[in-house]
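Predict the 3D structure for this chain.
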Amino acid sequence: MASLHALVIDDEPDICELLQITLFRMNVTTDVAYNLAQAKKLLDANHYNLCLTDMKLPDGSGIDLVRWINQKFPDLPVAVITAHGNMDTAIDAMKAGAFDFISKPVDLQSLRKIVATALETNQLRNTAEKSTAVFGRSTVMQNLEAGVRKLARSQAPVYISGESGSGKELSARSIHNFGPRAGKPFVAVNCGAIPKELMESEFFGHKKGSFTGAHQDKIGLFKAAEGGTLFLDEVADLPLDMQVKLLRAIQEKAIRAIGGATEEPTDVRILSATHKELDDEVKAGNFRQDLFYRLNVIQLKVPALREHAEDIADLCQTLLTKLAKAMHLPCPTLAKEALKFLQNYDFPGNVRELENILERAFTLCEGNLISVDDLQITSVNRSSKPHDKTGSSTHDHFNRCMEYASLDEYLADIEKEVLMGALEKVRWNKTLAAKELNITFRSLRYRLQKLGLDDE
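Done. Predicted structure below.
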């Protein structure tokens, strides 16, 4: 195995000696530079696996060096050494392309973790072809995959934005799986699904007897994700008091369990997402600006499915193959008319909606061919029926939808009204109702069962 080589840049000899000794014990040889000029000469003349640089140097800023390295040696991980408590500087460095940061006075355990992760990241350059996600052949999805692979090499927090159902969690999992933390846990949590009174315990854990009902110690989500990635989905739903506690955990890289006597260090990478516009939530006072600043070090935008309709054919094949394997049945074929129908549909629910449509069609199709009727959706053709943003009908539907908890609940209510109307018209004769609606009897039964209207 080739020896590992690091460059340390700091104008304090004591810091350089400490870093050299620590790296030597990790079988890493070290060169030292005391300013930017020396560092650039060494970087041009040698190959390094890791670079550690102070933020304040006699002839310039460590951030300037990070940017220079990021341009000339994009695969070289750079960790920055910052003054204690100077989180803003650390975030600026990560925005510039730094892999991670460590505060002075240097904690050796934290340093070893950062070095080990950085070296593993560097060694992943030639093995990054492993893939756990289908991104697509379109330009926008190829750009997304490139962004995911680049972000996987960093330890900076990433805020993933995009519409509901577009694949934000899949992108987060890919960032984790392409990076050096792949062998450690990936823990995803829906922040909106945790009751407010249990939120602190869920995130940080609790000690036995710390409150009524705490019959035993419990580790929280941070400890469950130790060494790996914690994905905070729908982070905008966190209450303000929990946002304060989360902010401290991110800043200090330490947590205190409820009833715990001391803080414990934690090593997790934070990824977050929401379908809401987090900027708007900050302006409305619903989300802390300082927490947003720390979560939004790097932003990744996941495109809506309608923005890469050319990938729908491949997505359908992948999803149908997955369904067939799960059901131990032959994989059905999608009729050409059905595929064209899907390619002209706007998919307000994105990939999640496509998956639901295909699962339903898989269940309802006759033989092994999925027809347009099996899809059971009303098409909105992008080329011939653009969205009417001024028509009264559109506004009526939107205003009514706002009275419901979700779009799915609103659509289910409309479907229920249509089905009940058809059944009442034919005196609850289901065969005649299916003919009235121009759907199969099997399809009618499926819809009634789904909505809890089947009394048989």
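Confidence is low (pLDDT under 50) at residues 125-133, 383-392.
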